[in-house]
Each structure stands twice: as structure tokens, then as C-alpha cells.
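Q: Hi! Curious about what Phosphoribosyl 1,2-cyclic phosphate phosphodiesterase looks like structurally. Here's the sequence.
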Amino acid sequence: MKLKFLGTGTSQGVPVIGCTCEVCTSQNPKDNRFRSSVMISTEENKKILIDCGPDFRQQMLLNHENTVDVALITHEHNDHVIGLDDMRPLIFKSGKNMPIYCYPRVGHEIKNRFPYAFADERYPGAPAFDLHEIENEPFTVLDTEITPVEVIHYKISVFGYKFKNLAYITDAGFISDTEKEKLKNLDVLVLNCIRKFDPHPAHFILPDVIKLFEELKPKKLFLTHISHHLGLHNVEDKQLPAGMHLAYDGLEINF
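A: Let's find out. The predicted structure is below.
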């Protein structure tokens, strides 16, 4: 299987509109970050998208991706769902509704934001989704077993997702001991890391991630959901402990 980072940035992306810091004005493409999303390719080359934010269209075009078979949504914040309307060409091409797996709470929010996708009489150009509500129990799609990992983002529950010996977690500020058991001794762990300093009420910062790396002991840990406050990619990546890496848009990982 393969994971491709379609985006590794925060809700504002990088560069941030109007910012002239060294990261936002960097000429290094690795310092340009779309909103966080990944594409999982199964062993049969089926495509599982995790999150669909406002950059979805550009992410698909730039990465020469032309198929999504299933979408998993971590939570309902706009930088993770507002691109769902841009799935229309894929839905029209396949002639099938797009399956979306998410919390019941998240499914309710998707219906509120895209009511035209669920109307009894839909406009011909509207998208069409099939919502599948999931709980914190393993489930199977496209012959692939997926284990949700429940984390806390400020005051709401968010799902990370585990495939084989890889787990992807974004928008987390707390992970319970019970859920940490799912994350121990992985080959690959992906965790959000919004900045280096100053505690954040909803996200891990770098000292938190280093502590989790030492506790959970994955073979490799990749940082995502990165803001311009974390610093320049080529500088900060070299300063991380061995086995830790900054993810960047377009990076692919086989697992």
C-alpha cells in the first residue's frame, strides 16, 4: 500500500495570505503547504481519500490523481470537508454516489453544508454522496481493514485512521492511553504538529510530538498539519530526532 501527502498545512495553508515571514516567502516548494489531506492506494490500487478540504481540486490535478473510490473524514471543520463539492467530476465519471465514512456527528454536518447533495430531487449538476456512519470499531472497505483511532481536538472527538502498521492522525491535542495502545510500535506514524513553541489548545506542538515519539516508538514518524510558525522545512527537518521527519506535499510512503 502507499500513502501520498496531498497537503500538509494547517487551516490557513502556507503561505498565509498577507504574511511576509521567511517561511511564507520561501522559494522552496516544500515550504508551500496545501490543507492537510492524504491519498491511500490499496494493494489493488483503489484510492481512499482522507479529508477533502478547499484545496482538493488543485491537489488532484497537481498529483495527477483522477480517482477516489472512498472518502474518510476525520472531522467536520471546513479545512477537512469543504472540498467535497469538487468531487463532482469523479462522481459523474463513475456514475456512482461517492461513499463517505465518518462519525454520525460529522455526517450531520456534511448534510447541513451540502443539502443539495441529499435532496430528493437533485439538480443535475449536484454531487451525490452515500454517508456511512462509523463508530470507534474496525471496519472494512475495498478489502482493506481500517481501524479508527479516537483523539481529542480541543473539545471534540476526531478520528485518525490506521491501516496495517501505519496510522494517520491530524488535528489532535490529546490521545488517551486506550487509544495509544493502537499506536505503539508502528512502522509509520503521522501526527499533526502545528508549531515549535507556545502550547495550542487544539493541536500538538513539537515538544508534544517528540514525547509521543519516545513513548509510542514508531520506526518512522512524519509531522503534518504544519503552520508557518514551525519554521523552514530544510532547517527544521535536519534538527528533528532520528526517525522523525517533516512531511511535505507530494511525499509518498510505501507501507
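A: A fun detail: The first strand starts at residue 2 and ends at 7.
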